[in-house]
Structure formats: C-alpha cells, structure tokens
Here is the input.
Amino acid sequence: MQTKAPVLWVEACVYQGDTIPFVELRNIYVYPPLKFSTQKEWRDYYRLIYNVKKVLPLSIMIHNTIIETYEYVQTLPNQKAKDAHIKRVEKGLKEQYTAQFKKLSYSQGKLLIKLVDRECNQSSYEIIKAFMGSFKAGFYQTFASIFGASLKKEYDSTKDDSLTERVITLAANGQI
Here is the structure.
C-alpha cells in the first residue's frame, strides 16, 4: 500500500513563461567553531546559552513594555496623569513579574541588565531615571551595587560581549 506525501502549497512566480515555486528561507548564521582549552570554558559557554535563552525573552518584553508605556504617556494631557499612569504600570509589572525575576540567578540578573541595554539602547539606570526619577534610579543602582552589579552596565557586542552576541544571534534564529 502506497501513501501519498502531504501537499505543501507555496507561492510561485512566473519567469519567462515558467512557473517557479517561491519559498523564503530564514538566514543561517555560520561562525567558526569554538575551541575551549578547559572543561570550565566549555561549561561556561553552555551556561551562557542557557542563560541567554532564559533572559532574552525577558529583555524583549521589557523593551516592548517601555515602548508601549512611552507611547501611551505621550498621549496623556498633563504631568499628573502621566505620573499616575507610570505608578499603575510599575505596580502592575511588580505584581506580574516579581516572582519570575526572583527566580533569576545572579549571573542571569547581570546578563538581563546588559540585554536590556542591548534591546533599548539605554542602560537600565537611564530607563529608570527617565520613567521614575533620579531618586529611584539612584536607589535601585545602590541596591544593585550591594550585590556587585551595576544598572549602568553597557552592552558591547564587538568586544566584551561578542560571545554573548553570537549566542543571541544563534538562539534568536533557532540554531541552538
């Protein structure tokens, strides 16, 4: 008994009288293979992959929330309404995401700070300062520094964070 292969309908284009199927393929990124001199470097790389896969969606969510909040705040008539809306957003975000952020490890938290800078082109400190004022930004920066982190940490895809950028590119494309 012979089974039929499933039919896959694709777009087609006509070129000089011939009908040619048209399928758009995603980009494939190829990097030179990594060489690890120690087992620890190998484990650190795979830990980075795990952390990026866990934290990258959060940084994208933060970016989207910032854009939505900024666009909505611009439509409000006065500063009092803007401040009230920002407080509501802050309260809602704390209720919704505090448990999720508390589950992050120390290294994931530091990576999140860098990825927020990557996604938003602003450090976490600058974002907090813009929305909540310099007092709260200073408070959160002090709190972060107690744990050895900095909200002012910037993402550098060409030097310090080149391996992270490679992992982000491959993870976002579904290659790892």
